[in-house]
């Protein structure tokens, strides 16, 4: 059964936060399920999110809701187990709109994920995400 893999014990890291305003634009807003809050990166050529799960997980889907005009034309999902180096799982190609977009992920068992956003639609390289969901199964 597929369900959200992000839990309170999941550690998240992001490449940047707009003007270092963590209260208004911090990473916690990626997972709070609120329609009015978002993670807003600062400017730069490449933005990313790292998730470290408390246990091994099998990822099957990635869901992302961008703010139109602040999305990415190409994304990359990487993963690893334990202390292994990150390895590419899949490239994905978001549309520049406000819809919740779903990207299938080939079966990957990991305890760490990195989502990288390349070729952003914003001239300054900013990315705005209202919702990030990682779906799959927790391994026992």
UniProtKB/TrEMBL annotation:
Its main location: nucleus. It comes from the Eukaryota. It is found in: Nucleus. InterPro entries: Galactose-bd-like_sf (IPR008979). May act as a repressor of NR2C2-mediated transactivation by suppressing the binding between NR2C2/TR4 and the TR4-response element in target genes. Belongs to the NR2C2AP family. Interacts with NR2C2/TR4. This is Nuclear receptor 2C2-associated protein.
